[in-house]
Amino acid sequence: MQEHIQLTPKEINQELLSGVLGTPKWWLGLVAFLLLVFLTGAGAFGYMLNKGVGVTGLNRPIMWGFFMTNFVFWIGISHAGIMISAILRLTQAEWRRPVTRAAEVLTVFSLTAALMAAPLVHVGRPWRAALWVFPYDFGRGVWPNIRSPFIWDPAAVMTYLTASTLFVFVALIPDMAVIRDRATGKWARQIYGYLCMGWRGTPRQWKLQTVAGILLSALVLPVFVSVHSIVSWDFAINIGVDGWHSTIFAPYFIIGAIHSGVSAVTMVMALMVWLWKWDKILRPDHFDAIGRLLIIVATTWFFFFIVEFFFAIYTKEAPELALRELQIFTRPYVFLFLIFIITAYFLPVPLWMFKKVRRNVKWMFWTTVSVNVGMWLERFLIFVPSLARKTPLEFNWGTYHPSIIEMLMVAATFAWVAMGMLLFSKVFPLIPIFDIKEGMIVRDEVKIGRAIVPASIRE
Amino acid sequence: MALRSVLGLFTDENVVADAMDSLRAAGYTSSEYELLTGVPYPEGTFGEEEPVHKLYRWPLVGAACGFIVGLVLTTGTQLAYPLVTGGKPILGIPPMAIIIYEGTMLGAIVFTVIGIIFESRLPRLFMGAYDPRITEGYIGVTVTAEEDRMGQAERVLREAGAEDITRGWETPR
Amino acid sequence: MASGNGAHGALALATPAQVNRDLLERHQRRTGDTYWRAMALFGALFVLGIIGFLMRLSDGFSDKAVWGYYAAVFAFILTTAQAAPLVAIAPRIAKGHWRRPISRAAELWSVVGLFNLLLFIPLLWVLPSLEDTRRTLWFFDAQDPNFSQVPIFSPHIWATLALVGLVVTGFMLLWVSALPDLAAVRDSASGWRQRWAARLAPNWQGTSQQWNFLYHRTGILGAFYFIMLIFVHFLISVDFAMALVPGWIDALFPITHAANSLQAGTATLLLTMFCLRQFGGYKDYIGLDQFWALGKLMFALSLLWFWFWFSSFIVLWYGKKPSEQAALQLMMVGPYLPAFMAAFVLNFLVPLFTMIWNPLRKSIWGPTLIATSILIGTLFDRIRIYVPAYSVPGIGNRFVEKHELSEVPKSILPDMADIFMIVGAIGGAIFIYLLASKVLPVINVWEQKEMLLYRVHKPFHRIEVLVLGKRD
């Protein structure tokens, strides 16, 4: 592609370390703002601890509201990193290079946000979560019940968090060596020197780095699949709530997670172009490639959505049909449903069909924001209407209005992830330096008559 | 005797390959000289030997450990507190399988990462002869040998076309 | 990485003209003994199958249980042969060069779709109408005025239409992607082949407009074949299996059925490649790259097999509703446990514990053996689904309760007719494939020639590297 810009290693260093070795003007202000939002949410959490969960809008029978929606949403976003990074590494797609790191880091921070949303906030008294999660004899002979999906869940999420953090770390080693060699302060040089453990760039080290990328991808992928499957089983193995007990939930959640996650990565890519001006590295064809991927992912997700819905009607059981009626045709859910289906599918996907849209950073940013608005609502619509009609013998017919306390805590998780990414970008490059340099080396062209076709060197 | 090292910096890949040939001809063994690059080049670009590693064993060992820990944990805790819930057997295989699976994968991944670091010969406590320009596109060739062979190594590197030469200590003085 | 032409050593065929000549010569060469022997063997099996079918036909259609194995083998061919073309379609859309030597071999399997369409016809008599008050995709309900107008033969009608659509799409895909090759045969061959080719590709001259048309149409037809395949699996798995079992509600099952077909289709193609290489004399074209790339894919799909199965299983196992327990009893842990275990071991455990080893994955024989294991496993898997489904008491009887399985029937073992039909259907599928391979060059000539444009070997300092171009 003519769009590719060949850069020297020195230029790549300067370009990609601009945020680490210097501080962009907007950085401090933005971080301060996000910190403020986060602290407000933390304050709301403190208030809730003091007053009890009554300050939320949760009300029998709807005890899973914004917090759980947010939990599943962030778990979903966390699937971006591994989807992009691992699958594209395994398939050796060249366009993965500038995207992998940001996607992996997004995974790590969104997982911590998910942990914040459910185990920390949702349970009301977070210290108690430790009693039923950790296999330690806190209660004199009482051990965790591994038959509960609420034990599978932490096991999977913690495994995924550990794995993706290590994944990020391993790929960071060569880049930390670059910072070590560029940093001006004595302390910075020391610290990065320790962190990269004396990396020098021998053929052996590079070989292991390459093998590690593929091997870890292959190992993290099955974990990634298990995480959201298990999250879905929090709901699906339950027979008490209509609309949840469906075998399709695990793949449906996974594909939904990939849909929202890849969209989130696209948002991050756009932000990297705008904030750090990395447009020499993130080219329109990167957006084009991810846009094409998004069409496939979104359509697969839509197929699963239809099948899920269809088999609810297939049962022909009255409670199931009544639930679908509530979810789709009854106010206020009908509005949410319409917004959800339009923003998650019918607005973005037809737009992505156009090459012009796919190659335009602004369009890609706003369409993927739209997807994530829709996907957040999707989770809300799975949980809340179902719980509202939890059981035929229910005599508490409360409704759910999210309180300001909940909203602040939800906003705090968004601020946390954004802030985390920004803080990370201040100490580590958000685009893998060595991967970009390698991309420049293996870049080649094939001449066919008068046409020049982009090519890459394969060993 | 203290080992010392010398580093020659190059910019042209072909020159580097020639320099390594000259070192070989001058009697340095492949364990004495090393190539340092800031980018992963395709294997064998400089005629260097293909590094042999045993990384693939690590995840298997890790997976085995994780599997055992998962198995012990799931059976142990349930037998220690045999409370029947939801009509499921105390040692129900499907839920146990989920926890054991996570344990297996966690073990495999943690061991792989340890393996990567170990097989990369990291952490390296003493940098020896090194130059920050390597991460900026220069290609380095270091020779690590006894002090009395340094002069010859330096000469070989300079004759091969090194643009700069630095010396360093491999072990503390 | 997979680079395209398996044998890097085939430098003798360095120009498009040489490739052209070589492949067309191979195509038109007098057929060898191996081919005739194979034709005789599979033809004999096919005849055996017809005998088996006639034996079964003599039992009539009133007892549905005896037709279980027949339905299973129909589903098996749908899952294997009819899915194999996807292996050409997906990498073509992803522009993977390694597919080029095997894309025709994959697409050629769509011819077998016609055979399976014939196999499907008796099932139209086997499947009861919707009047037996079962749950159905079509929501027929004689009591409900809104749904009493639904045709009672909806499953029959739609499945037939979908299957016909799939077969037609497959043929069109095969034809469009073979146009340049047919033109080459038209221009170089003699005899019946020339007449055939001239009729099928009368106008192909290779104008850039025609090439654009070709690229476009193969992409669209490929995508359409994929969608049709998923749709057919959806209809067959629900209407011809799931709906027959009262209380078996598994929203994932149609997708599992289709996902299994991706795995089995890959395995089918791997075996085909092995035969072409070993017995067909195409060693220079089909090499390690193809086996490696497909082996990895098959490995991933084997893991997916487990995931789909477990996703269904855990929900039903944990839910513990009596209707779900009965369905599990029927198809997994009850009378068909041995068949299920065979499928589980051959489709998942064997690939898992063998394919994790690099030396085995990166070999010719490794993926081939595992593909065999997967195909046998898939047959068992289809048997443990379709045979019990047709043996459920009260099929077609509206007075038998249809919301929960009241009693789990005993297992049905295949009788002589069933065994004849199973080997006959598989033999017949291979027989037709062998016939088709004589009509079209079994290696895609134009894709092979095109690759030479995008592939350059050149020195890179001290090594020789392969440079692969990718058209935008």
**Which residue ranges of chain C are poorly predicted, with pLDDT under 50 across at least 5 consecutive positions?**
1-12
Residue share in β-strands of chain C: under 5%
- The count of strands of chain C amounts to 2
**Largest sheet report of chain B:** 4 strands, antiparallel
Outline type of chain C = globular
The CATH C-level class name of the largest domain in chain B: Alpha Beta
Q: Supply the helix-strand structural class of chain B.
A: alpha+beta
Order of helices and strands of chain C: HHHHHHHHHHHHHHHHHEE
Question: What report would you give on this structure?
Answer:
The complex is a heterotrimer of chains A (459), B (173) and C (472). Chain A is mainly alpha-helical. Chain A is built from 18 helices and two strands. In chain A, strand 1 (443-448) and strand 2 form a beta hairpin. Chain A is globular. Chain B is α+β, with helices and mostly antiparallel strands and 173 residues long. Chain B has two domains: 3-51 and 129-169, Alpha-Beta Plaits (2-Layer Sandwich), CATH 3.30.70; 57-119, no CATH class. The radius of gyration of chain B is 25 Å and the shape is rod-shaped. Chain B starts with a strand and ends with a strand. The model of chain B has no long low-confidence stretch (mean pLDDT 90). Helices cover 65% and strands 3% of the residues of chain C. Chain C contains 17 helices and two strands. In chain C, helix 1 (16-28) runs antiparallel to helix 17 and helix 10 runs antiparallel to helix 15 (365-391). With 472 residues, chain C is an all-alpha fold. Chain C has one domain (42-142, 150-468). Classes of the chains: A mainly alpha (459), B alpha+beta (173), C mainly alpha (472). At the A-C interface, helix 9, helix 10, helix 11, strand 1 and strand 2 of A face helix 10, helix 11, strand 1 and strand 2 of C. Strand 2 of chain A pairs antiparallel with strand 2 (463-469) of chain C.
Record the SSE blueprint.
The complex is a heterotrimer of chains A (459), B (173) and C (472).
Chain A: H1 9-16, H2 18-21, H3 25-51, H4 66-90, H5 100-122, H6 126-133, H7 149-182, H8 186-195, H9 203-236, H10 249-275, H11 284-314, H12 318-329, H13 333-346, H14 348-352, H15 355-358, H16 361-388, H17 404-427, H18 433-442, E1 443-448, E2 451-458
Antiparallel strand pairs in A: 1-2
Chain B: E1 3-10, H1 13-25, E2 33-36, H2 57-80, H3 93-119, E3 139-146, H4 150-160, E4 164-169
Antiparallel strand pairs in B: 1-3, 1-4, 2-3
Helix pairs in contact in B: 1-4, 2-3
Chain C: H1 16-28, H2 33-57, H3 68-79, H4 86-93, H5 103-107, H6 112-126, H7 154-188, H8 191-200, H9 208-239, H10 253-278, H11 288-319, H12 322-333, H13 337-355, H14 358-361, H15 365-391, H16 416-439, H17 445-454, E1 455-460, E2 463-469
Antiparallel strand pairs in C: 1-2
Helix pairs in contact in C: 1-17, 2-16, 3-6, 3-15, 3-16, 4-9, 6-7, 6-16, 7-8, 7-9, 9-10, 10-11, 10-15, 11-13, 11-15, 13-15
